[in-house]
């Protein structure tokens, strides 16, 4: 099983005094594309005003430019600890025990606009780059889409895609029977379903934490649904779309 998480714009500072090494990251076939995005991002960071515009930052966010300027020498920490925000606060990776963290390193990946897919345990620096950031010499969507899709197509076993639609566009998961895309919805008194925002992220974080703590053996979407019901989560089958993974709805 592979659980795909979206990144977060907010990152935790600090880490170990060990600089980024692309050779230390999972999914080694992405090394070339990673190096290109790093080169473009670091180069743009030399011009603070241009980077602020590319990242759509306000005056109070100038420190984000400094993060990108220091990418080659910044301290690193595991990706699952680096990200903060609603999803990652609910996941609360620092409080997981050793077995759960080892499981996460093998079965969880985060989709970064800067690094592509990274394993949960991969050491990365703090940075600022989003799916819609505009780098002068590179467009992120066509740059990442085929390499990431190829990595996911080569992965055997169940894929549980918890990414946002924007990051799915940067590398769709394969449309096969053991690949599912999960949406978070609420159901009102009239039975109508609607997508959620804040609780969408929180629910994905709680589900991921539950998977890491239980470490079930799941091979099919049916396995995932059965486990989820026992774990206190409601998963319903969602829409079927041509050339897309089967959708599931997590009812929050």
From TrEMBL:
InterPro entries: YaaA (IPR005583). Signal peptide: none annotated. GO terms for biological process: response to hydroperoxide. One of its GO terms (cellular component) is cytosol. It comes from the Bacteria. Pfam families: H2O2_YaaD (PF03883). PANTHER family: PEROXIDE STRESS RESISTANCE PROTEIN YAAA (PTHR30283:SF4), PEROXIDE STRESS RESPONSE PROTEIN YAAA (PTHR30283). This is Peroxide stress protein YaaA. It comes from Agromyces luteolus. The gene is yaaA.
């Amino acid at each position: 099983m592979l659980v795909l998480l979206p990144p977060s714009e907010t990152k935790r500072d600090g880490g170990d005094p060990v600089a980024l090494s692309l050779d230390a990251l999972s999914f080694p076939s992405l090394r070339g594309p990673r190096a290109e995005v790093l080169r473009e991002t670091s180069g743009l960071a030399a011009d603070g005003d241009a980077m602020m515009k590319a990242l759509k930052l306000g005056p109070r966010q100038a420190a984000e430019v400094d993060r990108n300027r220091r990418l080659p020498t910044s301290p690193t920490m595991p990706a699952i600890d680096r990200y903060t925000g609603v999803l990652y606060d609910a996941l609360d990776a620092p409080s997981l025990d050793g077995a759960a963290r080892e499981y996460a390193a093998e079965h969880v990946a985060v989709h970064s606009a800067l690094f592509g897919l990274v394993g949960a345990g991969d050491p990365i620096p703090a940075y600022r780059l989003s799916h819609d950031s505009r780098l002068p010499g590179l467009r992120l969507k066509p740059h990442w889409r085929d390499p990431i899709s190829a990595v996911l197509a080569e992965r055997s076993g169940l894929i549980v895609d918890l990414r946002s639609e924007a990051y799915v566009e940067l590398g769709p998961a394969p449309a096969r029977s053991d690949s599912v895309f999960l949406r978070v919805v609420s159901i009102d008194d009239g039975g109508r379903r609607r997508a959620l925002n804040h609780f969408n992220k929180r629910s994905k974080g709680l589900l991921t934490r539950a998977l890491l703590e239980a470490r079930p053996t799941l091979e099919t979407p049916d396995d995932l649904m059965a486990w989820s019901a026992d774990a206190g989560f409601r998963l319903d089958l969602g829409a079927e779309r041509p050339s897309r993974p089967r959708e599931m709805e997590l009812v929050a």
